[in-house]
C-alpha cells in the first residue's frame, strides 16, 4: 500500500537562503541560493533531491551541552530543564520545502557521555553536515570540540561534509563572559572551517534560524552535487559519441580505400 505523506508544515517552507550568524565564520556569505540551484529548482531538475534523498545531520559534543534540547526546541518546540542522558543515539526527521522542492533532514542526536560514545560513533557515517556543540558557559567543552570533530570525520569525507560549531545555553552567560568565549569560538570555527552560531534552547534564540541555515546549505550542496553528476554523465556521453564518430570515420576511410583499390 502506498503511504501518503502529510503536506510540509507551513513554517518549514524556505523561499530564500537563510543567512549566516557571523560573517567572520561562515561557510559562505552569498545573499541568495546559487543561481544554478535556483534554475534547477524552477525546472524541477534536482535529480534524487526531492524524491528519495534524505540528508543526514549529526549533532555531537560533550555530555550535557544541550544537544537534545536544541533538537527538541526545533522539532517539537519544547524545553526540558531536567537532564536525561542520551543513550547511544536518537533521531528526528524534519521535512522542508525549499524553492518548491521537498527536502528531508534526519537530525541525529548522539550521546556525549563517554560510556555511550562507542555506540553513538557507529552512526556517524554518511553525514552531510556535522554540528559540533559546546556550552557557552564551559570553556572546556569548547576545547573538546576539536576531538569531536576528529572522531566524526573519521567516518565521513572531510571534503564534502558541512561543519557547524554551535555554542549553546546563551541565556546563561553574561555579556562579558559571552564576548570572551565567542572570541575563542570564532578562532576555533575558522580553524575547523566551520560556520559559527550561538543559540539558547531555553528562550529559543537562533534555534530555528540555525536549523534553517543547515537545511538551506545541505539542500544547496545536494542540488549542486546532482547537477555535477548529470554534467559528468553528459560529458561521458559526448566523449562516447565522439569516439563512436571517430570509429565511424576510421571505418569509412578504410571502406573508401578498399573501394579505390
Ligand atoms: N538554561 C539553559 N539550559 C539548557 C539549555 N540547553 C540545555 N540546557 C540544560 O542542559 C542540560 C543538558 O541538556 P541536554 O540537551 O540533555 O544535553 P545533551 O548534550 O543532549 O546531553 P547528552 O545526551 O548526555 O549528550 C539539561 O538540564 C537542559 O535543561 C539552554 O539553552 N539554556
TrEMBL record:
Reaction(s) this enzyme catalyzes, per UniProt: GTP + H2O = GDP + phosphate + H(+)
Its membrane topology: Lipid-anchor
A biological-process GO annotation: protein transport
Gene Ontology terms for molecular function: G protein activity; GTP binding; metal ion binding
Entry's EC annotation: 3.6.5.2
Sorted UniProt keywords: Acetylation, Cell projection, Cilium biogenesis/degradation, Cytoplasm, Cytoplasmic vesicle, Cytoskeleton, Golgi apparatus, GTP-binding, Hydrolase, Lipoprotein, Magnesium, Membrane, Metal-binding, Nucleotide-binding, Phosphoprotein, Prenylation, Protein transport, Transport
Gene Ontology CC terms: centriole; cilium; Golgi apparatus; phagocytic vesicle membrane
Subcellular location: Cell projection, Cilium; Cytoplasm, Cytoskeleton, Microtubule organizing center, Centrosome, Centriole; Cytoplasmic vesicle, Phagosome membrane; Golgi apparatus
Pfam families named among the record's database cross-references: Ras
Subunit and partners: Interacts with RILP. The GTP-bound form interacts with REP15.
Family statement drawn from the similarity comment of this UniProt entry: Belongs to the small GTPase superfamily. Rab family.
Protein name according to UniProt: Ras-related protein Rab-34
Biological source species: Eleutherodactylus coqui (Puerto Rican coqui)
Amino acid at each position: 500500500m502506498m503511504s501518503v505523506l502529510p503536506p510540509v508544515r507551513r513554517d518549514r517552507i524556505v523561499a530564500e537562503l537563510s543567512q549566516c550568524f557571523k560573517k567572520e565564520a561562515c561557510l559562505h556569505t552569498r545573499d541568495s541560493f546559487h543561481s544554478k540551484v535556483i534554475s534547477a529548482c524552477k525546472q524541477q531538475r534536482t535529480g534524487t533531491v526531492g524524491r528519495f534523498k534524505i540528508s543526514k545531520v549529526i549533532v555531537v559534543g560533550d555530555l550535557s551541552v544541550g544537544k537534545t534540547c536544541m533538537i527538541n526546541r526545533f522539532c517539537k518546540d519544547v524545553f526540558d530543564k531536567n537532564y536525561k542522558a542520551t543513550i547511544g543515539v536518537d533521531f528526528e526527521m524534519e521535512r522542508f520545502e525549499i524553492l518548491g522542492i521537498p527536502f528531508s533532514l534526519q537530525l541525529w542526536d548522539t550521546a556525549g557521555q563517554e560510556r555511550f560514545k562507542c555506540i553513538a560513533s557507529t552512526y556517524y557515517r554518511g553525514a552531510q553536515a556535522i554540528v559540533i556543540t559546546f556550552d557557552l558557559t564551559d570553556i572546556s567543552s569548547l576545547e573538546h570540540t576539536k576531538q569531536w570533530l576528529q572522531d566524526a570525520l573519521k567516518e565521513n569525507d572531510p571534503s564534502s561534509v558541512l561543519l557547524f560549531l554551535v555554542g549553546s545555553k546563551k541565556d546563561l552567560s553574561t555579556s562579558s563572559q559571552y564576548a570572551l568565549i565567542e572570541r575563542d569560538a570564532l578562532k576555533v570555527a575558522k580553524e575547523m572551517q566551520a560556520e559559527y552560531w550561538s543559540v539558547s534552547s531555553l528562550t529559543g534564540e537562533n534555534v530555528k534560524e540555525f536549523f534553517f541555515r543547515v537545511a538551506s546549505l545541505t539542500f544547496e550542496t545536494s542540488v549542486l552535487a546532482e547537477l555535477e553528476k548529470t554534467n559528468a554523465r553528459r560529458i561521458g556521453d559526448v566523449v562516447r559519441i565522439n569516439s563512436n564518430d571517430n570509429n565511424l570515420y576510421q571505418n569509412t576511410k578504410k571502406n573508401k580505400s578498399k573501394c579505390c583499390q
